[in-house]
Amino acid sequence: MLKQVNTSYTPLILVADDQLSTAIMLERVFLYEGYRVHKTADGLSTLEAIKTLLPDLVLLDINMPGMSGFDVLKQMRDDPKTARIPTIIVTAMGDLSNVIQGLNLGADDYLKKPFHTSELMARAKAKIRAYQLESQLYQKTQELESLLRLGEELSLYPESADLLEFVVYLIADLVPKRAIQIFQFDRDRNIACTRTQANFDVKTIFPFAEYLQKHIEQNKDVIQWDNMNDYMGHDYATTGLLRSGHDILGMLVLGADAPYTDSQMRLFNGLCRQIALTFRKNELYHIQQRYANHLEEIVAQRTAELEAAQKLLIRSEKLASIGRIAGEIAHEIKNPLMPIRICLDNTKEDIEDGVYHGDIGMVNMAFESIERINYIVDSLRAFMSNKQAENIQFAPLDINQLIEHITEFNRRILDDIHIEIRLARIPAISGNRFQLEQVLQNLIINARDAMPNGGKLIIQTEQVGKLIHISISDTGVGIPQDIIDNIFEPFVSTKEEGNGLGLFISYGIIKKHNGEIRVESEIGKGTTFHIHLPISQ
Q1: pTM for this one?
Q2: Which CATH number fits domain 12-140: 3.30.110.40, 3.60.15.10, 3.40.190.10, 3.40.50.2300?
Q3: Is residue 470's pLDDT more than 90?
Q4: Domain 158-286 carries which CATH code?
Q5: Nearest one of 11, 12, 57, 20 to 40, comparing CA atoms
Q6: Cα gap 230→216, rounded to integer Å
Q7: Strand boundaries in 234-301, DSSP class E
């Protein structure tokens, strides 16, 4: 049974937090903004409240007694009735893995304690608004699907008596009612057939129906009446003419204890039209078919729009989360790099001064790694804002030399893997050395992780027209088909300990180089990544 999304409806916020002070603070903030609030303090009561109250937004603490916030979130997303409810994780935990776990389980956003109430309200309002728009679209889609189903099922009942019996049965599941009366008129508008489902004497409604026929015919097809106790024993009646062109084929009357919403009136009007079409199905069969086909197209279009909106919303929120995470990662990584650099400077001076013997090449390689880390961290922070596209410096690059360098750099971690390098004579490309090293490094590490018991790694280059083709192949475990289609999306990983950002960032880097990256994989046989980059002009 369809319910209308009321524009005057006050959204309900569920605050799930075992810290009373935090829960009370959140309650006051949302009450002040005009929202309704319900509080819970443990996982089990939170899950029960979500299923019972169906809130418009859930503020979910991760650490709660009885059941963790992660478990609550997983069960929410597994239940179709609660799967679409927006959820913001509110936690004092600063561990990146917990944030990623929450987002992977379906959380829409996260906040760290302490937080600013203005930031909380901005995010909450955005989530509630998106949820309301999604619900409205979902509701309209359901209305269209109901009408489409009705049109299809009515066509199975060519006899009037069977048809009216089925209409009474079907309406009982679509709109709230206490009484149903349907009439079919003959050409002289006399009652030819009728069916009812009510607790009143049918004779008392006949004068009412005759009056409505004359009244509605001069005005409009559907009218909602109040003060109908004398006729129906209920406060409200909704009446609709079953009209085909200028012909009145019948009448549908529903009695109820409350007036219908706009959504239910739209559905009622649609019911009347569908029933009228079925009454004339022998004459208007082809029109009915076109109408049904049109409804199918609308349902498909609305469903596609809803799915596209959901995917766009999820991707936008994930990208926003990555941006925030990138800032935190940059801060935590760059702090210890300075003392490492100082120690390496001292070590290099001692070797050069002959204080002790050491491999100066290894020290220089460590310096190079520090520079690469600095660049990766800075580019990661700029990546989400697209500022990198403005500041990135391109120069002519020898891809073969780059591959040899990065392979040699990683050779110690590839001891159990047979490496084949097949490099063709190719022209230079225009690119950023650090960024392309980052891509190659990520793909080589992924290949190593896919071959825990050893295997073969093949890296080769060739010129294809005006492009340089780079392929990196392994004989590892392969990528499952349900993952490979989204392998370049954020937070998608085949590794238990992976964060799902490496391939996402690599994809962005290749795109910024006006190139393409794709993947082929077969379970148990291995994976090949293909990169195409334009030749330097």
Answers
A1: 0.39
A2: 3.40.50.2300
A3: yes
A4: 3.30.450.40
A5: 20
A6: 20
A7: 236-244, 247-256
